[in-house]
Automatic annotation (TrEMBL):
Coiled coil: none annotated. Belongs to the Nudix hydrolase family. InterPro entries: Nudix_hydrolase, NUDIX_hydrolase-like_dom_sf, NUDIX_hydrolase_CS, NUDIX_hydrolase_dom. It comes from Nostocoides veronense. This is Nudix hydrolase domain-containing protein. It holds the Pfam family NUDIX. Keywords: Hydrolase. Residues 91-243 form the Nudix hydrolase domain. The keyword Ribonucleoprotein does not apply.
Amino acid sequence: MTRDIRIEGVTLTGDTVASFVLPHGADPSEQLQARGWNLTGVTHAFTPPGSDGVTIRLAVVAEVDGGDRHTTWAPTATGEILPDGVEPIVVQRIAAYAVIPRGDETLLTRLAPSVRGAAGRWTLPGGGIDRGEDPSVAVRREVWEETGQHLGEIHLLDVVTSHWIGQAPSGEWEDYQVVRLVYAATVPHPGPLVVHDAGGTTAECAWIADSTLAEEERAPLLRGGQWLSWRAAADGRWPRERQ
């Protein structure tokens, strides 16, 4: 299940100044800082031809005190105490998610009861990138599987990672890291909402109003300033009259 996630740091002049495979459990922004560079944003994510790994290109500037820094850590969904004598399986996962606005609503999915620590909570549609699959293809596939909607224009917004030890739905203990690519996206022709991936991690999907979401149980991706910045970025790219 684990495969290479390559991080490339690229300057404003287009020079690649850092290139490394992300170690399990590591934070890309901290890895870049250790090499003398500050992360300012994400520019590209792609699967190289003939590869089953994913390359993420990040914009960087030389590290200076008070420089513009961008973190890639996100809150964890869960955290459990590993029982004595249990050796967890190491899993590093790469996934793609979409922020899909429509006026004052956002297309969201509710996590299924099988999702430990976050069951019943609302989150962004998306999921794991298959081996050899490009992230831009994966986010379109995942949104269709979980909501029945076909994406139009997409734009890469951010990359975030979380790391914890916990139990998978199978009951196996995992030392688990997920690296999430977050896209802003449009649905030019909204259709009936359908969860095609029956029996998966999605229980239902809906267009949720901003005012309603504040009162709902939410997964970590929909909490705090990070979520608000993604929503604002999507609105800024596609004014509400274009959604």
